[in-house]
Structures are given as structure tokens and as C-alpha cells.
Amino acid sequence: MVSPILELKNINKSFGHVHANKNINLTINKGTIHGIIGENGAGKSTLMSIVFGLYQANSGTIKINGKEINLRSPKDSIINGIGMVHQHFMLVENFTVLENIILGFEGELVFGKNLEKAKKDLKNLCDTYKLNIDLNSTISDLSVGFRQRVEILKSLYRGAEILILDEPTGVLTPQEVDELFKILRSLNEEGKTIVLITHKLIEIMDLTSEVSVMRQGEMVGNTKTEDTNKEQLAEMMVGRSVLLRLDKTEANTGDVVFKVEDLTVKDDLDVTRVKNVNLEIRAGEILGLAGVTGNGQTELLEALSGIRKVESGQIYLDGKKVSDSQNFLDPRELKDQGLAHVPEDRQRMGLVTDFKAYENLIFGYHDQQPFSRSSILNHKDIISHSKKIMEEYDVRPQSPNLITSNFSGGNQQKIILSRELNEKPKVLLVGQPTRGVDIGAIEFIHQRLIDMRDKGAAILLVSVELDEVLSLSDRIVVMFDGKIVGEKENTNVTDRELGLLMAGVV
Amino acid sequence: MATVDKSRVPWWVSNLIVPLVNLTLALFVSGLFIFIAGENPFEAVSLIIYGSFGYIEGFAYTLYYTTNFIFTGLAFAVAFHCRLFNIGGEGQAYIGGLGVFLVAINFSFLPVPIVWLLAVGGAVVFGAAWAFIPAYLQATRGSHVVITTIMFNFIAASLMVFLLVDVIRDTTQMGPHTVALPEEQWFPSFEDFAALFGIKIRYSPLNISFLLAIAASFFVWFLVWKTRWGYEMRAVGHNTQAAIYAGISPYKNIIIAMCISGGLAGLLGVNEILGVHHKIVAGFPAGYGFTGIAVALMGRNHPIGIFPAAFLFGILYQGGSEVTFDMPNITRYMFVAVQGVIILFSGALENLFRPQIENFFVNRLNLKAKA
User: For residue A420, what is the nearest residue in chain B, using CA coordinates?
Assistant: First the structure.
């Protein structure tokens, strides 16, 4: 007899303009391992943070064991038997395991009988679930896998009946993943309900008994794991909506103008994010780079545009080597060589949102004629130039003196796009050109990119929107875990094929 | 409390009304202090006004203080546009003064106007050099300028005491100061100018450095808003990531902004050495470097705002000394407290009433638009 332990009804949550959860309904049955799968940014973590009381939903109801409850803080959730293990552990590094677990509950525990009892209870828990933790070791001495176990133990000690794990395997080695899964299974055998948030299909198939799929803030499917397969899940995850139709003729390609050889790039934490990538882009073609967020696309774009150091490999522009691990051109020098870059994150990188629109319209080209002469900015020319391209790219409102943060997302994106396209680059790197942009602007932006292609630019389009990649690209490569895992001509490739490549299934 | 659409707030509301409301509140609270201390606040205000405007020498003193505050206020503002909190103006001014003196005394064989130019250059170079080290540490090692510049204030103070006691002391005198510069190098003072027109007035420290301060204000305005360097500094300050993307080097701009900031602070040395003391006196920056921070914050880091803010603090300094002279219950420290209250209301609590005031005006404008 299955009975629901946790029921969510019509949960909505917005952050500013972003609707992170749209009318989510979810039922989690007692004693199951329930997987929630979806791409990064699909709204999984937001949903579970609502369940754990970290965020409050804008509307909707939450029931635990059939009783409607109001979760205002993690404390309410803990009292109701919900425990959460976060992606980033919340432990005090220089405390012992024991100290971390009783933190916040210490009250009368710090000395004497109660502390002894706590120790005994914890030992029992460790034994029951084979956690194998030494309560007196200091957190900073423990490996990541053990720290995660401490988090699990902490939740159990506080009486968790439902344990939510947010991307628990992201930081683990394969061996540690096996260990974790063993522990989760034994927890499940003892009657605990487990919610596993992940974007890895393999984990869902391995571990869960039921699975829910989220995409772009919506719940798109609920099923028993045994009734489905990886392919079907991948399809649901990536989605299949109507392709936007575009006036696009056959590409008229020329020579290879941009070439990447054996490129390896590390991120700020020294983790290798791009692994031996090879790419070639011809003049007059759009190469689409598809992939789930966080598989190295960001680091790749940064390395190609001169923002991030190349670890090994070479980049050629127009047959000339522009970057390797020893020598590299900085972003401005690359601009001079005819490379333009529309970055993935417009507010973090593409714009100075506190600047006026005209200041952003010359951003990166501000030292060139006619915008500046002998280091003095030429206001008159900048303003007239700004008015001209704001009109050409239909940036609304057309006021160069308005502060950029007052423009809508779509118009901010147009500001960047007009700035970069206006330079008539030989190579154009575009990251997520239509993220958070309204439909009308999407069409406009897409048409502009096609126009650039027809004028002979070599374009690299990086997007997590499969529709976008499919409707714009002439050729498509798929990136997974830092590697290029597939290359297809965009003639009769299906989104399903790409979805499988993106999920790392084949 | 709904948030206000910033774009619809008229400029005069956020740049005039809000500071005036804050200032009024600060004066009201200060008035309470004075009342509690057992004096009549209204009398104190009239004393302040008399002391700073009521007679020509008093007004000259006000402008002399204003000069110093303009230099240190501009110094802080320039660094702040690159989001660097340079609280080392005090030390940079001190070392700037050393530059003025060393240049003036060593080049005394040159014609006086050239010595002046060189001495101003010396102030800028020495002040900039003193700011360069924290800037370099910030740019390459991430050592926070707040920490390093405040440490450099102490180092500057110790270094100057050492120099004034052991190296460049006027050995014929007992005090920690240098010999005086030759009299022809002294900056023309306000009384000299007045004498040209046949007006005889008593001594005041006001000198042509005041004009230099006005020139520096124009320079800062031009630099920050009209040149490529200012543009790049502001870009780094507002969004370092975006600056890197656009090929603007944060490293370079941190150093440039700090050096310009230090150079401007160094100009305080010109006012004090060439204009007033005509020699280096231990401790001549006297806290102007720190008050400059408040001046810049109150003036919203814009030269047009810094001038009135500096003038206000000039009034407080000059009028304040008048009050402490005439009212035995009010000590000098009382006026430090008054300054503190003004800094508190116009700096730290700047946003206390901003949303309400802006809302009020936006609503009124909306009503007008409907009617």
C-alpha cells in the first residue's frame, strides 16, 4: 500500500522576471527513492528549496502525510521530518563531526549525560546505515564523500523521514558514488523516503523507483522508473517544441577562418572543464554547439575570446595562431583581429548595467576612432552613433542617455548584439543569444545572426536551447563533460539524437 | 514599501532634496547635542554663520579649509569611481607635502613660477607614489586597499616624524619642522591680493591654492567623464568581469586610479607648505584626509557635489572654532561629534529617507501627469 508522504500542489515561484517554478504538482510516496531530473536551471533546486523552507512559494500548498503545512524556514521543515543535503555542504570546517551535528541543537547537550546519549544515538545511526564515521574527527580532515555522509547523519539525527539530496554526486569520485548509493539504498530499506535531484540519467536508472522530469520551470512528466528508459527521459528533459521557422538559405561557405586544436581549459578552481576540443568554422557558416549547461561551454567561450587562459592546444584565426598556453592575445587584441563575442551572461559580463546605454554601445570599442581621439571621448559622435544603431537594431526605448539596467532583458541583449555585429567581425562567438528574451526579440536576433552568416562571418553559436541550435546552425557539435561527443550536419538530425548526445547516453 | 522606478525620479530629487533633508536632520540632531551641553543651539548656529561669513578673515579661513577638503574629497572620489576605498588620503597628503618641500628647496635656483610648477608636480608624484604601493598590492595580490592604505597612513606619519627629527630638521630650532622656504617662493596669499587693491586685512591662510583646487575639480570632472581612462576606471569599478571581457585591464586601472587619487591628496601639501607653513610641520595634514572621505560621499563623488560639501565642512571647521571660543560648554570635540553626525546622516544613513522621498515625488509627478 503506497501512501503519499509529500504532496505539492500548484507551486509557483518567481525571482524578478524569472518564473522558476510554474504550477508544479508533485507527489512523493512513502518509502520510495524519487528522482527529480532536469537540466540545470530547470527549477529543481528551487522547488526543493521551497520544500526545505529556504524559499517561500508565491502560491501553492504543501502537504506532509496528508496534512497541509506552512514552511517558513528550514526549522519548520526539520520539525516536519524533512532533511536536505545541499550541493555545497554546510559544515564548520574546524569543528568535529559531533560538534557539527549538535550545532544549533546544543542547548543542554554540551556537557554531561545528554552529550553521552547523543553520542550513543549517533553511533547507533552510523551502525544501522553503515555510515562508518568517526564522530571525533575534524571536518577539514575528511574527504568530500565523508563530509556528505556527515550531512546525511546530521539530517537523520534531527529525525528526517524525507531526505532530499541536491546533485549529490557532482563532487564525488565514481567509487564514492557507489558508496553513497549503497548508503541511500540501506536508508531506503529502513523506510526512509529519498528525493534525489540530478541531471544525470544514469543515476536515475540505477537508483530510483519513481521519477519526475522538469523543464524550464515546469513539471513535464511523472512515471515509475521501470516504465521508462533513458531515451524517453532524455527527450522529456530536453523537450521538443515547435521549431521557429526562419528565412534561411543554404550556407555559402568559404575557407576555414577559425580553428581550435586540442584545446584544454581549466576553470578558476583548477578543474579541467574543456578537454582536447577540436573545432573548425568556415566563413559563412553557423556552427551550433549544443550541450547541457555546465559541460564546459562557458570556459570554452571564455578561452576562445581571450578572457581565460588556454591550458594546452592552439587557436587559429584566419590561419594565424592567436592563442596557445604560452602566448595569447587579450580580448582587445582579438577584437582588432576581427573577433567579436556576445557573452553568455549579459549582465555579469556583456554590460556595465550602471552605465548609460551609449556608454555600453561603445564598450570594448571605446578606444577606437571616432569614439575617442587621443584618449578623449568624443561625445557627439558617440551619441549620434548610438542613436543610429539603436534605431537599426530597434532597441527600445531609443534613449542613449538611459541607464542600461532600465532596459528590458531583450533590449539589453540587443544593445550587446548591435555593438558586436556593427563591427562586422570575421568571427563571431555568441553565447545564449536569446536567454530570457521575449519571442519578438528572439526572431529579430536570429534573423540578424543569419544575416551575419550570409555576409560571410564565421559564427559559433553556443546555446542550451536545442530549438535555437537546430533552427540556426548549419553544423552542430555536442559538448558533454568538456568533450565534443558528436558532430552532425544539420540536415536530418533530430532533437532526440542530440538529446541523447547531450545527456551523455551514447 | 514599494520600490521606486529609479528612471522616473527627477535628478533634483535625488541630488538636491535628499542631501538637504539629510543635512537638516543632522543639524537638528547636532542642535540637540548643543542643547544638552547647556548652550542655546540657535545662538550656536548664528555664531557659526558669523564666524564663517561674518567678517572677511573668517570667510577666508572658511575657504582655506574648503581648499583642503576639495583636494582630499576629489582624491577619494577618483579612487571610488574604480570602487577602491582609498582611506590613505592622510598619508598621501603628508608624503605629498614632502615632495613639495624637497622640490622647492632643491630647485630654488630656478625662476619662482617654474619652482611652483615643479613643486605641484612633486606633490602629485610623491602622493601618487605613496598610493602606488597599496595599489600594486591590491592589483597583484588582492591585498585590500582599505587595510593597506590605513597602514600606509601610519607608516607615512612615522616616516615623517623620523625625517623631521633626524634628517631634515631645522637644526637651529627645537621643534620637529624643517627650515622655511625662501620667502619669494611662498604662494601669494589672500591678504597680498587684497593689498593690491589697497584693502588692508589681517592674516588668513587662504592663498592661490584655492584656484588650484578649482582647477583640480575641473580636471577630475574631465578625467572621469570625458576621457577613455575615466571610462575604463568606471567600467572596472562597476563590473570587473565585463571590463575584462571588453579588454580593459583591471590591474592597470586600479593602479592608475589609485595613483591619480594619491596625487590629488598630495596637492593638499601644496596648500599647506607653499601657502601656509612654508615649511614641513609635523602632522600638518591634521585629519583633512579622513574628512575628505565624508566630503566625497556627501558630494556623491562628483566635483559639482564635492565643492558644496567641502564648503559646508569649511563652514563647520571655521564656524566651529568660533563657537568653541565663545561657548565654554562646547569643546572642540563637540564639533568633531557634529561632523560625525553629518557624516552619519549623509553617508551611512544616506538611504534612510531616500525611498520615501523619491516615492513622494514620483507619486506627485504621476498625479500631475494624470491631471
Answer: B246
